[in-house]
Design brief:
Blueprint (H helix, E strand, L loop, with lengths): L2 H12 L12 H12 L5 H8 L3 H4 L3 H29 L7 H28 L7 H24 L10 H32 L1
Length: 199
């Protein structure tokens, strides 16, 4: 588990029922809740595997689950941005076709935007409360959706490039598909909170 996330989860654990002396749901209960919630996402297996380690903190809280999903998405997006930035500085000159160079440059920009929007969403979700709930959740939905669009736009730039002859496309796709899947799952979990509140 990434360092910043561990600290984040540690703080949440301190505020949990177990820390206050109230019996907490069993880990098995938390895992069952995560699996059930993930079944409503587009990539349920990815959802469960990326979030199951958060069961002690999530317990049976839809909001904590969405917060964990956004944290996973943010870390993946940051990692992907670091990779495409590194790749753009290493794969230069004759090692790239003009199309590849252009697509890679655009990816650096769009994934950077994705990191920013998911970061905004993490902070906004923490502001959810009884007042202006719909305003805050709507912001999160808008920003996560835009982040997902950014990630898909990155890959769109490589669509006209021949798969068999482009190592760059394969490397970028491997990273971007991963972050797009966890972002899609995070959006589904956020949408579920909004639907339950309105219902």
């Amino acid at each position: 588990m990434e360092g910043p996330l561990f600290f984040f989860l540690f703080l949440l654990a301190l505020a949990s029922p177990a820390a206050s002396g109230t019996p907490a749901p069993s880990p098995a209960s938390g895992l069952a809740f995560i699996r059930s919630s993930c079944s409503a996402t587009r990539f349920p297996d990815v959802c469960y595997s990326s979030l199951s380690s958060y069961a002690p903190v999530v317990q049976r809280s839809p909001r904590q689950l969405a917060q964990a999903a956004l944290a996973v998405s943010l870390n993946r997006a940051r990692s992907t941005h670091g990779f495409v930035t590194w790749l753009s500085t290493r794969m230069t000159g004759p090692r790239l076709t003009p199309r590849e160079a252009g697509a890679l440059k655009d990816c650096v920009t769009t994934i950077s935007d994705s990191v920013y929007r998911i970061g905004q969403s993490v902070g906004e979700l923490k502001r959810l409360g009884r007042s202006e709930f719909l305003w805050h959740i709507s912001n999160v939905q808008t920003w996560v959706s835009a982040a997902l669009t950014d990630e898909n736009t990155c890959m769109d730039g490589f669509n006209s490039i021949e798969v068999k002859t482009s190592r760059v496309r394969a490397m970028v796709r491997r990273h971007v598909v991963g972050v797009a899947q966890v972002t899609s799952n995070a959006l589904a979990l956020v949408n579920k909170i909004a639907e339950e509140h309105q219902g």
